[in-house]
Amino acid sequence: xxxxxxxxxxxxxxxxxxxxxxxxxxxxxxxxxxxxxxxxxxxxxxxxxxxxxxxxxxxxxxxxxxxxxxxxxxxxxxxxxxxxxxxxxxxxxxxxxxxxxxxxxxxxxxxxxxxxxxxxxxxxxxxxxxxxxxxxxxxxxxxxxxxxxxxxxxxxxxxxxxxxxxxxxxxxxxxxxxxxxxxxxxxxxxxxxxxxxxxxxxxxxxxxxxxxxxxxxxxxxxxxxxxxxxxxxxxxxxxxxxxxxxxxxxxxxxxxxxxxxxxxxxxxxxxxxxxxxxxxxxxxxxxxxxxxxxxxxxxxxxxxxxxxxxxxxxxxxxxxxxxxxxxxx
Length: 329
Hints:
The protein has 329 residues and is α+β, with helices and mostly antiparallel strands. It contains eight helices and 20 strands.
């Protein structure tokens, strides 16, 4: 039954429980039919139960029984893998006597990818990126495919987020996420928007890299200028590759040493960190303030008024007499 469901040439969803039947159960062999679906949900108080398979009726000697058991174990293990569930499911099935049943907690079902919710598949693996080793993560979901690629840079870890972009998407800020907590990234740029996708390059801050060493989930998203809408994804980490990648990049978890590069006769409009700027300080003091704050990436300075404007991003420079700017590098 599960193979028949998996072979249906359309997107198939399975759900245990509903508003009308909140106490529904899927037990014993039911789980094999259930995981044949593309997207698998567990509603309300619905339950999923598992136990060992058994052979009833007939007479088998020990050798025949062992051979059949090994054959069935191999078939079921491969079937579980082919339907994107984790091998821990079969290990748990094998540990429960056939006349008993284990009602598996929702968290375990999600960890084992028995319950997938809106996510079809998640993968991570190393690729060759212009002659360098990079870690590429992919999540295929009901909302589209998204990718996050991490690689070593001169400043630690850099990355490329390739996100499925909804209609009329607007870009305000770019965030990285760890275990549901999101952090606004200062150094990022949109390199391409085409065919319903947005591609953003970024530098991963050292403090984020340190936190990612023990993360269970990592993700990327774009937030609209108003801050009320976003698009992106967050992927579960199962194989330790993100930790391995970060540890393999020199300086990834160390705070970078920055300097300020002056740009005479230049203004960097927009992206102000303060509404009123900072008055009555020198240009040197203005740059020193920027160096002391990780969220500051550049400054513009009105020389005649000794007026400092720290910036969250460099933005697009324009020629402006009487102004001098500096960019953190």
